[in-house]
Amino acid sequence: MNENLQIRTYKKSGHIEVICGSMFSGKTEELIRRIRRAEIARQRVKVFKPKIDNRYSEFEIVSHNEQSYPSEVVNNAEEILDKCFDVDVIGIDEAQFFENDLVQICQNLADSGKRVIVAGLDQDYRALPFEPMPQLLAIAEYITKTLAVCVVCGAQANRTQRVTDSDEQILVGAKNHYEARCRLHHMINIDSKKEAI
Ligand code: ADP
Ligand code: MG
To answer: Cα of 107 to ligand 2 centre, how many Å?
Structure first.
């Protein structure tokens, strides 16, 4: 038979989408929007967040403008793999709080035909790349960079200012600890809130 006329059956290809940006830039909002659209398309969805993020709710991802969607808390990335056998679309919020094995887990999920949507901070409060996001950005098929509004000058904000005195890379919190700032008004050392204004 002519090879060109042969019917080829391909396995459905999955992919990885990354939504990244500073705090308050709308990552969770955008993740929820995509998940809701997948639901309208009658796809089977599941959303996960790391145990460390207990800011607003144990059982939901919640955006700063109070949009929410049910989610499961997982202790590590491996747990996500175990829970996604019968799922088409997987949402993962606060990806920067997972270990680097999240990268391979996302690859495995996408390789098995699933749509994986990962949201997370691409930079920490010092404006340094926040692992594992850089690696996820490298392997993703689709990337969305969200920007917030600088609280000092109103420009586009690509950075997260820590406004309390701590030098831990991870300090979970929202408006009490962090602000969105542009390049010009972002300061590594505090008392930066005063200095910037
Ligand atoms: P992220 O997940 O990126 O931290 P969210 O999706 O939770 O962001 O929240 C985005 C919402 O935060 C915006 O729609 C807006 O209502 C609110 N918001 C509060 N402060 C800011 C800011 N400085 N810039 C932009 N949006 C802000
Ligand atoms: Mg968020």
So the answer is: 22
